[in-house]
Structure formats: C-alpha cells, structure tokens
Write a structure and sequence with these properties.
With 296 residues, the chain is mainly alpha-helical. Helices cover 79% and strands 1% of the residues. It contains ten helices and two strands, in the order ββαααααααααα.
Length: 296
C-alpha cells in the first residue's frame, strides 16, 4: 500500500487525472493557433501563391482595372474566344479560387477538430462553475458556426474554379455609365433585353456569357446538393446519438441537440440554395440581365 502513496495521497489521484486535461488543453491551443494561421492564409496567401511575374494583379484594384479594359476589348472583338488579356485574367482567377478552396478545406478540417475537442472537453469536464460552462458553450458554439461558414467558403471557391469567367465579371463596375465600359454595358443590356425574343441575334461574347453563367449556377446547385447530403447525414447521426443518450447525461444531450439543430438548419439552407441555383441555371439570361442592371 505504501508504494502507492505519497504523504497519504494516492499517486494516481495526485498526477493521473491532470495529464489528460493538460493534453486536451495543449491540443485545443494548437488547434486555435492553426485556425488563426489558416484564417490569415485564406486572406493573404492566394494572391501571393497564384500571381505570376508580369501579370500585374498586385491588388484587387489592379485586377478590376485589368478586367474592365479586357472585357471591353473582348466584347468588341466579335468572337467567342477570349482575348489573350482576358484569358490571362480568367486563368489567374481560377488559380486564385483553387488556392482559396484548398486553404478553406484545411481551415474547415482544423475548425471541425477544434470544435470536437472543445465539445468533448465540455462533456468530460468535472463540475463547472456557471462562468466556465458559459465559456465552454460560447467557444464551442462559435467554432461550430465558423466551421459552417468555412464550408460555405469551400463551396463558393469551388464554384469559382468551375466557372471563373462568371466569377470574374462579377467584379465589373457595371453601374459606371460613362466611358468605354459604360458603352459596352449598355450594349450588353440591350442584347439581353432582346434575348427572349425570337430571331434576335446575339453576339458570340454574349452567348458565351450566358452559357458560362448557367454553368456557374449549375455548379453551385450541385455543390449545395452534395453539401446538403453530407449535412443531412451528420444531422441524422447526431440526432440518433441524442436519442440514445440517457437523460442524466445532460451535457452530451445538450451538445448533440445543439449540433443537430444547427446541421438541420444548415441542410435546409443548402436545399434552398440548390433549388434557387437550379432555377437560374435553367434560365440564366434574366439573372445575368439583373446583374448588368446593377441588381446583383
């Protein structure tokens, strides 16, 4: 017995329980640091990683000016193929969204791990004061919401990879009414207004814009449908765990119920996004006209 005691205190009681707590605390701290790093990387890294020498996309203002000039040139070219300048911008924008999508996936993975670690620490912690309970719940809830937001960032950037041209022209200052861009936007509006009529001839550039806009929204419809299926599966698993958990295990039921509600609401939102984008993909011209009219 004495070999297992030191000063009357059992050794496993004095040191054993503290090790898992310390290990969990270090893991949470490391995940928080990783989340901060990849959040900063999501904002700062894509432009640095994807800009090639001589492209001149040092900042968003420079990119907008490049897109403005090259869009006017493309429209006036009278052909469907992109001009070299616009093709370069589209290629850059696709690489940019690819980099953002990869970083967003990593950030989402980190946030999911962090959320799980926080919720598990809350469930397995001993008696807690009201303040500590509030801190655990607030932190876990915030990280869960950030993870859902990160999944939206993944979706949006994958959409940009699939249809970078439509994503790129969304940066055009279409409200501008003077200069070459104003004249070009006016011509686009006129042709779009006539596009529903029979026998109206569209320019090759407009035909490509309409088809790419349809692909842009179809991509989001498919992405949202896949995300909704994943979110629904998570909701089912979480609610099943909630149903199996004894009423005495209040923290586990609280965590399962909270995540179940969030994922269920997120699934419904994704379904709405899917249906809306499918409608736009089926008839893209009105939505494209609304954009050039300044409505999107």
């Amino acid at each position: 017995m004495t070999a297992h005691h030191a000063g009357g205190i059992p050794l496993h009681t004095a040191s054993g329980p503290s090790r898992p707590i310390l290990s969990s605390g270090r893991k949470i701290a490391a995940l928080i640091a990783a989340a901060a790093v990849f959040s900063a990387a999501f904002v700062l890294a894509p432009a640095m990683l994807t800009t090639r020498p001589g492209e001149g996309y040092a900042n968003q203002g420079a990119l907008v000016e490049t897109v403005r000039a090259n869009f006017v040139e493309y429209w006036n070219s009278g052909v469907e193929s992109f001009t070299p300048g616009l093709q370069s911008a589209v290629d850059y924008w696709q690489r940019y969204h690819m980099a953002k999508a990869v970083i967003a996936v990593i950030l989402l993975t980190v946030l999911l791990s962090l959320g799980r670690a926080l919720w598990m620490s809350f469930v397995n912690a001993g008696p807690l004061t009201a303040g500590k309970k509030l801190a655990f719940v607030s932190a876990g809830g915030l990280v869960t919401l950030l993870a859902l937001f990160s999944s939206v960032l993944v979706m949006a950037n994958v959409q940009g990879v699939v249809a970078p041209f439509s994503s790129l022209i969304s940066m055009l200052p279409v409200a501008q009414t003077d200069g070459a861009l104003g004249d070009t936007v006016g011509q686009v509006r006129q042709q779009l207004a006539q596009s529903t009529g029979t026998g109206n001839q569209q320019s090759p550039a407009l035909e490509l814009m309409i088809s790419d806009f349809a692909r842009y929204h179809l991509a989001m419809a498919v992405i949202a449908l896949i995300a909704a299926a994943i979110s629904l599966a998570v909701a089912v698993v979480v609610w099943a765990r909630f149903a199996r958990t004894a009423r005495s295990e209040r923290r586990t039921r609280f965590v399962s119920g909270s995540i179940g509600i969030l994922t269920a609401l997120f699934t419904l939102g994704l379904i709405v996004v899917c249906v809306a984008n499918m409608g736009t993909a089926a008839d893209p011209a009105p939505a494209l006209a609304a954009f050039f009219d300044g409505g999107l």
